Amino acid sequence: MLKTQHDPELKRGWINTETGESTATHPVVSSVAREMINKAPEERSGIVSTTLSFLALYRDPIISGNTAISDFRITDLVSHEKPVSLYIIVPESDRDRLRPLVRLILKLISSRLLEKMEFDEQGRSKYKNRLLIVLDEFARLRHLEFIEEDMAISLGYGINFLLIIQDISQIYKAYTKEEGITGNCHVRIAYAPNKIDTAKELSAMSGVATVIKYAKSFSGGILNLFFRNVSEGAQEVQRPLATPDEIMRLPADDSLIYVGNLPPIYGKRIKYYEDPVFLKRSQIKAPQSTDKLTVLYSETGFPEYSAVKIAVKDDVITDYSIVVIEEHGENEDSLF
Questions:
Q1: Where in the sequence is the domain holding 297, given as residue range(s)?
Q2: Residue 2 domain flag
Q3: Measured between alpha carbons, how far is 94 from 91 in angstroms, rounded to an integer?
Q4: Which letter, b or e, does each residue of 25-61 get, where b requires 16 or more Cβ atoms within 10 Å of its Cβ?
Q5: Does residue 70 have a pLDDT over 70?
Q6: Which helix (H) or strand (E) holds 140?
Q7: pLDDT (tens digit, 9 = 90+) per residue, 248-260?
Q8: Residues 208, 191: contact at Cβ < 8 Å?
Q9: How many domains does the chain have?
Q10: What is the pTM of this model?
Q11: Would 162 be classed as within a structural domain?
Q12: Residue 329 to residue 321: CA distance in whole angstroms
């Protein structure tokens, strides 16, 4: 690693920090390799074992092929001329195995889009398009600390999160009772829960209502055929707007909607198969292959290279992938 030539032609201008001379080895790679050499053998062995355990996922040729090249830039999600949608679908059988990859993709998207805080004259984000990140079965991704932190500031960048879970206890299990997920959700929609603890929390969120309680009392002798005195009264008392047992008995078509700074809303669920608009959308077939977004080298951080765009056959990812090749008068078949 100390002598690996990442830039044989010395076009990057890398400098060896020890000798001060030009080097073809990436400075970060050589620095990390030098640190590893200086560690004790036992410590170095532990580090290597831990590293290999995290990289074992990429031994899969399909994953390796699909992560070898990117068909788009992360900023295309918010800055492309036309709105871009990215779907990450994981087979249920590979859910546990691919969880680290999904977490890594989400981390890259979050870090890249929240990198700069730029706003226009009206205080809005300069991104061309707003972004909605939908995470179905969110709790299955386990504890994502960056999501918990980024939700507090993402709205200022025009980025919203839609998190779908089965029960609030899943959030508590991954993020403990002191979690910051629900506190950063401006809108919360709940359906009939199966756990009493969740029902109690929804009841507390719904608040209380004031009702009038009527009372009537009778008095008189035991041997009297009729009561001599009858008194009636009414008083105002409070009761939960929705008790836990009432919430657990919600009809399948009903829902409770909680919006910040507004009273709770009793709503009706829209079934997509009963709505003609949603039904028509659900019948759109998925494309056979994904779209490809091409960029020049100058847009990917390598302004010293001119570039051309070419489609090459790729049997691993999809039918065709777009890659960028060097254009310096030599062999146009050599990929960068």
A1: 288-336
A2: no
A3: 5
A4: bbeeebeebeeeeeeeeeeeeeeeeeeeeeeebeeee
A5: yes
A6: none
A7: 999 989 999 999 8
A8: no
A9: 1
A10: 0.71
A11: no
A12: 23
